[in-house]
TrEMBL record:
This is IMP dehydrogenase/GMP reductase. It comes from Borreliella californiensis.
Length: 25
């Protein structure tokens, strides 16, 4: 689960760059 969390952070970071508004989601 910890590894998955790491991927989530990377995905979240990528989404932040692509869709800054998605940061709230």
């Amino acid at each position: 689960l910890k590894i998955n969390s790491k991927f989530v952070k990377i995905s979240h970071s990528a989404l932040k760059e692509s869709h800054p508004h998605d940061v709230l989601t």
